[in-house]
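Session log. Operator J.P. requested a structure for one protein chain; no other inputs attached. Running the standard single-chain path with token output.
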Amino acid sequence: TSKNLCHKMTTYPYGGEPPKDRATRRKLLREAVVYESKGICEWAECTSRGTDMAHIKAAGMGGAISNDTLDNVAFLCHFHHDVLDFRMSMRQRSFALQQLVRAYVLSNRKI
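Structure written below.
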């Protein structure tokens, strides 16, 4: 059914069981997320070219297969990947948080 196909697309992009080999699994997942994002950063209101596949829920060292799913990754520019992973100074984090809140507010306004 189309519902099952849709579910498979959001969990593992090529259907079936994901490869056990981490490198192959991540390569296929990256190809799918780049395709879905059209190569553009998926952060709200960002129009930069995406560079990094980022896990929304961390995959951890060794990469849990259960976290390597299309609905748990985003294609982000390097700056927004750093924001997601908190790899930045307090000033940068403050600026990024302001951007995030602004994007959220604007996306929920009824204009």
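Operator note: The chain is about 50% helix and 5% strand.
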